[in-house]
Amino acid sequence: MKIALAQLTSGIDPARNAAILVDAVQQAAQGGAAMLFTPEMSGLVDQDRERASAVLRGEDDDVVLAAVRGAAAAHRIWVHLGSLAVRGEDGRLANRAFVIDDTGVVRARYDKLHLFDVDLPTGERWRESAAYAPGQGAVVVDTPVGKLGPSICYDLRFPDLYRALSDAGATVLAVPAAFTRPTGAAHWHVLLRARAIEAAAYVVAAAQTGEHEDGRATYGHSLVIDPWGEIVLDMGEAAGVGFAEIDPARIADVRARIPVLAHRRAIPAVETGNSTG
User: Fold this and answer.
1) Dist CA 172 CA 81 (whole Å)
2) Are the CB atoms for 183 and 151 separated by under 8 Å?
3) What is the pTM of this model?
4) Chain-wide mean pLDDT for the chain?
5) What is the distance, to the nearest Å, from the Cα of residue 200 to the centroid of all Cα atoms in its chain?
6) CA–CA gap between residue 144 and residue 142 (Å, rounded)
7) How far apart are CA 197 and CA 243, in angstroms?
8) Which of 71, 83, 1, 75 is nearest to 34 (CA)?
9) Active site residues
10) 244, 224 in Cβ contact below 8 A?
11) How far apart, in whole angstroms, are the C-alpha atoms of residue 50 and residue 264?
12) Where are the strands (E) in 125-198, listed by range?
C-alpha cells in the first residue's frame, strides 16, 4: 500500500498554507497514494501569539481544514492532517489532528496529550501550555493503510501512549511533528525507531522543515519506519512530497518473529522504602 508524506515549511498565513496542502493532496493522489500524511501545525506556524490569535478559528470556520477536506474528496484520497491549531468552545486552543476519508468526512480527531514546555540552550522558549489545552484521550481509526494510531510531536517521548495504541490494534503510528533542530538531531531518528520496534508497527512521521516566517527553524527528516525499525523513507531537509510503501505482511512477519504484544504484562506497583527484618 503506497502512502505519501508532505514535508512543509508552514508560514503565518493559513490561506497560503492551505493552498500548499491542496497541492500536496493532488500530488499524493496522482502518485498513487492511498493516504497522505502532513506535519504538526500544517495550517499555521507562528510564535507571535497575538498575530496568530487573529487568524485562528473553530473547526467549522477553519479555512485549512475546509480546503483539505475538499481536496481529499476531489482527489479521492485519505488524509491524516497532522495537526491544526483550532479554537475550542471555551476559547482555549487545541493542537488537533484529523483523519479525513476520501469523501472529505472527518473520521477521527486527536488532541495532543503532552504539551511542549521547554527552555533550549539556543535560547528558544516553547510554552505550549500557555495557549493550548491538553487532550484527554487516545484514538485508533480504521484507514486503507491499516488501523491508525495518531499522536503529535512531543507525544513521541512518552512510550505508554504507543503501548496503548498498539494494544488497541494500531498497526500504523502517526507522529506528525515540528521538531526543533537541536532536539531533532539528537533524538528524532532514535525515538521513532524505538516506537516502531516496541509496537512492531509502522511509524509515519511527517515533519515541518527549514526556516519559518516567524523565525523558528525545524528539523525536517520526515520518516517512514517499518516494524523491524528499518528506515523506509527519510526526506532529508527539503520541503516536498515523498512516497513509501506499507506492507501488512511485514507487520505480521515481525510480530510472529518477536511477539512482543502477546508478551506484554501489567507492571505491578513499584515498592518504595527500606525493608525491615
Assistant:
1) 15
2) no
3) 0.94
4) 94
5) 18
6) 7
7) 21
8) 1
9) 40, 112, 153
10) yes
11) 47
12) 125-127, 141-143, 146-150, 172-174
